[in-house]
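just leaving the lab so this will be short. below you get a single protein, a line of residues and a line of whole numbers that encode the local backbone shape. id like you to explain what the token line says about the fold, in plain words if possible. thanks a lot i owe you, the record is right below:

…
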Amino acid sequence: MIEHRIVFMGSPEFAIPSLKALARYYQVVGVVTQPDRPSGRGRTLTPPPVKVVAQELGIETIQPNRLKEAGVWEKLVEWAPDVIVVAAFGQILRQNVLDLPRFGCINVHASLLPRWRGAAPIQAAILHGDKVSGVSIMKMDAGIDTGPVLSQRSIPIEADDDAASLGNKLAIAGSELLLETLPDYLRGEIIPQVQDESQATYAPMLKKEEGGLDFAQPAEYLERKIRAFFPWPGAYLVWEGNFLKVKRASVLQQSVLPQGKRSVVDGLPAVGTSEGVLLLREVQPAGKKWMNGEEFLRGARQWREV
């Protein structure tokens, strides 16, 4: 067990491999994560994934709505971290927190900075057709993902990757790179590299209403959007007065179908776009399970009618 004291800040599934990796080799003296939130149809109060793992590991955990809440600073001081490690925490760290550990605060970010700073880098990379994504280990400053970079690792984006599958790959890569980077950083053997501001792009937090499919956009873009928005916020079109969620689609560039026109092509539900035709391969009608396009058509004979 390495002697340095670490406080970990993170919330979703992406953060779990990094927390588990740190707990194997370091003293993780405390975890800060988001509060429990209502989830699912029953709106059951559900803990963030990091809280569940932290409790399994026996690590003291706090869940403030904001780091400036009463008692949070005192707890951080009590934990006396040598370094704070952050992975998809979801809150801004104020300067007093950034300055508390003698080695600063280190972030595991799911992009090759300075490309895709911000809250949704995985989704942005898929949506914009990037061929490569990756993870960056960076020293945090007061900006949003603007701090100097300690190390990076690239991951190819496969043609069938969605935000869930790419996120899983990046989470594992991030945890591995974190373990490789921390020892050299703590020994002072890494010189942080300042980011090139001229190459910076930003990936803002996604909103639920952004999931609608606009068939005035090209089919290739919509196919990427469907993958980028799975599992959240989800891509959908309106059909029969309800949302028809779409999980997988493909593109026919040579096929001609008027924009927004519904049809059946190659046995699948299809919609014309501004460029090409979008074939819906896996969908979820309101109140039903996910199903393939052929199964959907068997119960939706009126699909052709517009």
